[in-house]
Design brief:
This protein is of the alpha/beta class and about 250 residues long. The protein contains ten helices and ten strands. Helices cover about 40% and strands about 25% of the residues.
């Protein structure tokens, strides 16, 4: 086929392709507890960027940070803790500085309304308590901090009462399905469930600030687009979606 005809054929094929096939993909790796809010933000972002498709990859922040370190083609990273961001920054994997996105609270929930939780010490009366794996799940790290400051972590560990979940969403499922008697989860997740009792709000002085951060990744091939998404997510419009899903603008 002559070169001119081949070119015309290729252009004709491109014209027949649906718009989504020509979309530029933007991969956002987000802490799973923020998944629903990021979905709304991404959907709105796509309305003003018709040639862009935002793809969300959700898991624990520790797992996502490890994926970035191993070379995953991520454009932006949203972490449920500054700790994971700091490790990527030290490795030179961030494009610019991480920006604060939202804050959350840690709570204790159970199904047993006849055994209300009034303090963390009450967890001594529960058989199995689910927390995130402190090594990879920020919610687990915050839970360990709170339990340690309350003088109960070693007690629960010694009696083998702790169940370690692999991400924040799994912790809610454990208590909803009766696989744990109580779970230490984010308030944003607790408020989505009708199958648990009233959450006990853990005092702020028992944990580090539960801060979500967002940053662009240095190896991204869509740096301008990634920066545009970051600006949109941290804008008043982005904040409205975060508030809708029970996230807070500040820790104080």
């Amino acid at each position: 086929m002559p070169a001119a005809k081949a070119l015309l054929f290729i252009l004709w094929c491109l014209c027949l392709m649906p718009p989504q096939c020509l979309a530029e993909d933007l991969l956002v790796s987000t802490a799973i507890s923020l998944k629903e809010a990021l979905f709304d933000i991404a959907h709105d972002f796509e309305k003003t960027h018709k040639d862009v498709r935002v793809i969300l990859n959700s898991a624990s922040s520790g797992e996502l940070a490890l994926q970035v370190k191993k070379g995953a083609p991520v454009d932006l990273f949203v972490s449920a803790s500054p700790v994971e961001m700091q490790t990527l920054k030290r490795d030179g994997l961030l494009d610019g500085e991480a920006k604060p996105l939202a804050y959350n609270r840690l709570v204790v929930v159970s199904q047993n309304s006849e055994q209300p939780i009034k303090s963390l010490i009450d967890l001594s009366n529960f058989g199995k308590v689910a927390i995130g794996n402190p090594e990879t799940v920020p919610a687990g790290r915050y839970a360990k901090q709170a339990l340690t400051k309350s003088g109960i972590f070693e007690r629960l560990k010694t009696k083998h009462a702790l169940i370690f979940g692999q991400n924040a969403k799994a912790l809610l499922t454990y208590v909803e399905q009766g696989n744990a008697d109580a779970s230490m989860i984010y308030l944003s997740d607790a408020l989505t469930s009708k199958d648990i009792g009233t959450p006990f709000l853990i005092p702020k002085n028992l944990t580090d600030p539960i801060e979500y951060e967002i940053a662009c990744i240095s190896r991204s091939e869509h740096k301008k687009l990634a920066q545009d998404f970051l600006k949109f997510a941290t804008s008043p419009q982005g904040n409205s979606y975060l508030a809708k899903h029970h996230f807070e603008k500040s820790w104080n």
